[in-house]
Amino acid sequence: CTKPIEMTRSNDSYFSSIIVDGVSYLKAPYPTSFVMKTPTMKIQFATFQPATITSVSILNPNESQITSMIAETDYNVNNSTNLDGLRVNFQPNVDFNTHIIITLKTTMANAIFPKTIQLAIYGCGQPSLPVTKAQIEPVETTTKVNIIGTTIVQSISCLKTNILTRTNMQQFSSPAAPLSDFSRAYANMRGEDLTNAPYIIYMFFNNVICVSDVLVQVTAPGRSTSNVAQIEVSYKTSDGSDLKSPNGSPITLQSPVNNPTVTEIPLRCNIQGINVRILGTADQKPPSFVRLIVDGCYGPLITILPPSNIFTTTPPSSMIVSGSTTGVPRE
């Protein structure tokens, strides 16, 4: 990234969502300044495509009265307390990043609220392209879904984004690699080696999610190839219980052999946990360079689903009722 641009104020849109203190903005135009109402403020950015982040800064440090800034990427956490110029420089740059969370604090006794914060993120990435309705309809990365749950939603749109990032997770672990926190297992990273069967990976998100794909990334730029050939996926609800089909049986899906990908068409929602079991490898050796990816929508259900489309009822389950799943159910 030799010529970083100010991604937050560019005429192009580099972000798929921005969440400001729990309030989600899911389509452009996104805010370029933010109103701080309490001594602590959290802003989360998700990019359309993996991007390179070079720095984050407050453009009006004196006016904003911010005393500290923490910038958390997919891979590390940095902070700044320089009151004359609140800025975090990432050296080296953070590559293949999909999320960045900015936490701002003020400890000034005379702090005034509300106040406007001018925030800038510099880096390089791939912006979204303006498209017509005719172009949008066949594109795989935009999915409409009908679901039944304690809330019925007529339809939503969700850009496929890798939501498996460290900042989104309560748990990401495996008994097959007990000394690892799987910080290297995300997209385009080195990946994790699993040593002891059964080869199961447990994931639990901070919020409910809608899932379009669960996969092991076999090849990645500049990384060793993973030997994973087939996976099995099951889901957990927010209370940790199995997500079940209308007949009451737990949902368990297997990927095709030699293609470790389970795809949900349309999206499957009301999920908070995912268990992935590796069923086989290409060389019959223990799984190596395991890089998990979960594509879908992340956030509290109310931020995923437009409120204007929501009405309540008393349905029998929380399963999607239209479309089919390309994963293979286990008998």
Could you walk me through the main structural features you see in this protein, from its secondary elements to its overall organization?
With 331 residues, this protein is mainly β. It folds into two domains: 5-124, Sandwich (Jelly Rolls); 134-329, Jelly Rolls (Sandwich). The chain is built from three helices and 21 strands. Strands 1, 2, 3, 4, 5, 6, 7, 8 and 9 form a nine-stranded antiparallel β-sheet that branches. Strands 12, 13, 14, 15, 16, 17, 18, 20 and 21 form a nine-stranded antiparallel β-sheet that branches. A hairpin with a 3-residue loop joins strand 10 and strand 11. The longest helix has 4 residues, at 61-64. The model is unreliable at 130-156 and 306-331 (pLDDT under 50).
Radius of gyration: 21 Å
What's the CATH H-level superfamily name of the largest domain? Answer: Galactose-binding domain-like
Query: CATH class of the largest domain, please?
Result: Mainly Beta
CATH topology-level name of the largest domain? Jelly Rolls
The helix/strand order is EEEEEHEEEEHEEEEEEEEEHEEE
Strand content: over 45%
Q: What is the arithmetic mean of pLDDT?
A: 78
Produce a short descriptive summary:
With 331 residues, this protein is mostly beta strands. The chain contains three helices and 21 strands.
Write the layout of secondary structure elements.
Layout: E1 5-6, E2 15-20, E3 23-25, E4 33-36, E5 40-58, H1 61-64, E6 68-72, E7 77-80, E8 87-105, E9 115-124, H2 133-136, E10 142-147, E11 151-159, E12 161-162, E13 169-173, E14 200-216, E15 228-236, E16 252-254, E17 261-281, E18 292-298, H3 301-304, E19 310-312, E20 324-325, E21 328-329
Antiparallel strand pairs: 1-9, 2-3, 2-5, 4-9, 5-8, 5-9, 6-7, 6-8, 10-11, 11-19, 12-18, 13-14, 14-17, 14-18, 15-16, 15-17, 16-21, 17-20
